[in-house]
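Input:
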Amino acid sequence: MEYPFAEKCLKFGDLTIVVRAQWHRWPNSEPPSGTTEITVTLMRDGIDARIVKTAPFRKTDWPLRGLEHEIPRYAKAEAERSVNVFLHWLGLAMTGDMWGLFMELDDLYRCRPIEGLRELTVLDFLSGLRDAGRIAEPLFVTFTHLLCAIHVFCLQNNSEIDATTMSIRLGEWLLAFAEERDKRFADFTPKEVNANA
Amino acid sequence: MRVKEQKVVRMDKLTLTVEGVWMTTWRDGVERGEETRVRAIVHWAGEKPWSISCVMDDGVLSPYAGTELARQYGSAMADRHARQFLRWLGMCFTDEASRLFNSLDSAYLFNPEYRQKPSAIDTCWRLACVGVIASTLAITFNQLRVAVCKSFVFDIENYRKYVPLGIYEIVGECLCNFANAGGEELDLAAAFVELAEQRLKEKEVSADGVSVR
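Output:
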């Protein structure tokens, strides 16, 4: 059975990014368990080819024990949450808050053993680091393309704002976009520069 | 150019080959960069071998490219990474997550803590790379751990004898010693017995009240 997915789309210059998440139940799992998968699609105006990156976001098992009827609702909420969290992480990367990003990844994937506070077994640590690494890849690819789009935009429009400032500003918009639950699309191309071009 | 260095670890029915491969990478018909991979080949007796690999290092072409030294350099790189992988495998057995984290971090700099203005590109890229290494390590570690569990070490008499010493710690130490010594083949069972017996002797002597160094 296919569960509802969540999707958010953003545009900057000639780059369109679609972030989509869906919860998949593992076959015959009891209690109902599954994985939320994130798919990022990157498209450039005028180019047919697209880049698609998929990574497992989170595994779920125990919360759905005995709640079979709640699965579709859970799947939808989980998918929405995943899209927003991914966009939030992208925002943190754009604003250069690497420590914040790493802390959030560590919160979810537990990839940092802390002596005396969080003693992890080696296998727990390695699987956490593997999961963090898997999500870091689409994050890296999306981030790199956004950065390229910013540079292209600045060059093409003789923008007065430098690329670093624009990237920080875009990061802040992304953080706000991640907070908006009902907004599905956002065009972040700076309008005032657009009008001048 | 492609250079390979192999380290073989035998334990009971498992033959684990850790292969460091250094190679130059080509783009548009030009040798442009280099890459070092580690491949772990898992071969259980009577079964088909399978392997798993990860990129340990990649970058621009070394200054030795095209010279006679390139092969030597490649061999040293392949050997270095194969040994590093074995050392990390040893740390997995000693269950030192913090030490492993620090060691992986000093190799790949993925933890932004204590770093001045770490760039997002670098951190995300490094985290993605180290994630693949972690996955390879976890899979290899599990296979070798199964081999140890199936071996004579876990026969009831041996188990009783060796368990106070910490069986996995000794296995980890054997792997680290092998990686540091730079040998090509390790009979893990023999190395285990040798080290465990040595530890038992030390324990006996110290129990007698004689100081042991």
